[in-house]
Amino acid sequence: MKLICAGMTDVGSTRDHNEDDFYLSDGKEALCVVADGMGGHRSGEVASAMAIKAMVEYYRETMSDEASAPDPPVGEDGEEVDLIEYRLREAVLSANTAVFTAASESEMYQGMGTTIVLGYFTNDGAYFANIGDSRAYRFRDGKLEQRTEDHSLANEYVRMGILAAEDIEYFPYKNVITRACGLADEVEVDVHFEEMQVDDIFLFCSDGLSDMIRDGQIEQLFKEEDDLEKLCRRLIDVANENGGEDNITVILAKVTE
């Protein structure tokens, strides 16, 4: 199977600078990353760029590991660890270290951090990792489904039964995240694998998209446009039409034969 990708970022309708960043594979690794930075003095854009740089460098420095490793790594419980999943988690942790160290050593960068959502694609399927509320979706057979779980106060309240999912958009603290890259010296990373099919399209986005467009409307836009570049542009345009209250970043990855 092959992968066709497109990506785009936009400052939005109300912000004066863009703290989002993204990365699309240039052929060395089938990797897609979206990072949504946060922090004063424009340090959010530093955090997102720094996180992506650290992850990409880690991947390139360890590319030979999968081929050269004589045995699969073993976890603390003695179970064999999926090497790709291990590298994915370590890449994100390297980003956390880079951002946290920079924030700790500079008053200007104090408190900066970033969300991360990424996909790594193989012939067997797709691996996803995330911290924060940037999301991954899958569009398959006309249906759009969120494939990552938000690390947000709103989502925690939904899980606890305090808040109904349909009321999240009215929740005053819906943008409060419970986990981010770079805010502490350690962070928990969600990683999972799933099989993929030809014609699957994966969407990776910052909350500047998902807060402005309901999932049903995103699904309808997928049905109306086949060209990935045009679909990226259309998603961003609609998010801006709906208010554009934040930076908007979109990556689309389509599986082909």
UniProtKB/TrEMBL annotation:
Against SMART domains, the record matches this protein to: PP2C_SIG, PP2Cc
Every PPM-type phosphatase domain range: 4-255
Would you say which domain of life the source belongs to? Bacteria
Q: Name one GO molecular function term.
A: protein serine/threonine phosphatase activity
Identification of the protein by name:
Stp1/IreP family PP2C-type Ser/Thr phosphatase
Q: Which organism is it from?
A: Bradymonas sediminis
